[in-house]
Design a protein that fits this description.
The structure holds 2 protein chains of 2 kinds. Chain A is built from 10 helices and no strands. Chain A is mainly alpha-helical. Chain A has 2 domains: 116 residues, no CATH class; 103 residues, Helix Hairpins (Orthogonal Bundle), CATH 1.10.287.1260. By secondary structure, chain B is an alpha/beta fold. In chain B, α12 packs across α18 and α17 packs antiparallel against α18. The longest helix of chain B is centred in the last third of the chain and has 23 residues. Chain B starts with a helix and ends with a helix. In chain B, 47% of the residues are buried.
Chain lengths: 233, 436
Amino acid sequence: MKDTIVQGLQQAYQNLFHMIAEFLPRLVVMLVIILSGLLVAYALKYVVRGILRLSKLDRLSEEAGASRVLRMAALPSMTEVLSRSIFWITLLGFVLIGISILNIAGLQEQISRLLRLLPEIVVAILILFLGLVIANFLSRAALLAAVNAGYASPKMVSWSIRFGIWILAIAMALDELGVARQTVIAAFSIVFGAFMLGLAIAFGLGGQGLARSFLERSLGEKKDDKTDELQPL
Amino acid sequence: MFAGESALGADFYLADDILLGDDFLRQLMSVGEVDLLVAIPTYNNASTVAQTIQIIEDSYQQNFIRDRVVILNVDGGSSDQTSETILNMNGRKGGAHRGITSLRTVHRVTTQYGRAPSQGMALRTVLAAADLLRAKSCAIVSPATTNLDPSWIANLLRPAYRQDFAFVAPVYARSRFQGLLARNLLYPMSRAVFGLRIRELYADEWGFSERLATQCLGQNIWNHEAIRARPEAWMAVSAICSGMKCCQSFLGPKAPPPPGSGPDIVEAIRQTVGNLFWCFETFQEHWLDRTGSEAVPTFGPEHDLTPEDKPSSQDKTFDLFRTGVKGLDSVLSSILTPETHEQLREIAGHEPEKFHFSSGLWVRTLYEFAAAYHRTVIARDHILQALVPLYRGHLYSFLLEHGESSSDEIEADSETLCLEFERQKPYLIERWKAKS
């Protein structure tokens, strides 16, 4: 009995030692690959950045109006966006290769699934990017309109619009990825519905005065507001 | 009649551009060449357009009896039968000027340039007609101007007709607190940038020569947003930058539009300041090296301020400035330099009765806005809208300071502001040329 236990422990110890002896070199190789990937990614980033600067891509992007879109989304210049993208894509590639070296059961399958999902991921990122741009643009437009019209809570109006578009974009991106589709749709409906209900309750109950003033301004007293100001021209 | 077949051939390319429809072209051909053209852009002005036509005809009868004249109506798709009102008008009414009748027929031509009103498209149609008719001098008048006078028409037409002026800007007698956007922003800024002292770049009435009309017609700018609503300043700046002669002509008191009928301050700034900034960009090679400003010949007084009671309390204007600076913090930080932004935050914290928006800060702010527009740091329309609360702040400061000032004191203050704009112009150039 005692011998069996000792033998079992010895076997387990040998297995563990064997596993560690097998795993450690792979881990080292993975770390070396990721480190090399980091260096290669940095090198590529600087090379691409230099080439793009020489080719005056930013000026072209400015003329084409793409820079405007990036600025609206509070993103850096086109050169910077592209060189950073190259950096992250290269690093991600090396990380995936490194992880595959570990030879962990199931992980290989996940990595190949991830690679198969790549087109959907790109589309999802695009949806998120567009959502960000549209949310920024529309929330700023709403903020300006609300401030200039003298509404009491312009930032709330602006944030409501931004938040609503974000929720919509995230739900669309997750739907594109096929991540728990039913759950996403249900979650979106709940969050969006709760958000609108919250607004309705806040506006209707919490802000009766604000609602009254808004309706008066919109329907009844608009002309008076306009005539309050001196003719500018 | 037209000068000849070759001239007709040279001009008919315009017909391809659907500017001149068949019916319109037929009307113009029946008129033939003219000396003078007065155009009335309309949109649902059936109630006032007949009176405007009558006054133009009176002016022709009184001042240009030997000249070939035409009245042109360009309509933006009125639904109140404006064009029909014009066409159904009889000849001159009454005998107000018995014994003096024109030796020529006063032609009336009317056309519709589109289904929605656009001052830019209206002007383009007028220029195409003027070019085809070879009108030596033209004027645009607004049917919304309720106190139009025959002398106004003559004063707008004569400088281009009898002398060699290409652009004729009006000078109105104004009350002290009327047209403050023009007084505190449009005039001083355009004067400092383009170097010519034209007070009313944005007006409902103005005149121009055949040469300027032909030059402007050939420009490929007509679909631009900045031109659609307010094309008149672009025309003036085109003349300035082409070295053509500009002048001002005193018209008389400008009756304010009925309350609520004119554009509100947001729309006025989007149209006029947007157009001005766009002109800065379009003509930048003409002004970047220019310093100082020159007076332009003026027929009549250069300015005329009439007394008017101080406007009622403007506390709401100050509130809108204060909440604007606070609410638009993130927007203003992408447009203004940190120093200017900080100064605005600081004055927004002042008590309303001690509030003062200095000329130096106002000029600096506007120049930074112009440079931000040029670099498109955010959507251009958003830049213009972000200017509205700041204009309100300056307006409040102006009213606080000049509530009891005389006309001369207000004029002196305006001149000081103009000189401040000119003094700080190198700062505009520096910001304009800055890469980020």
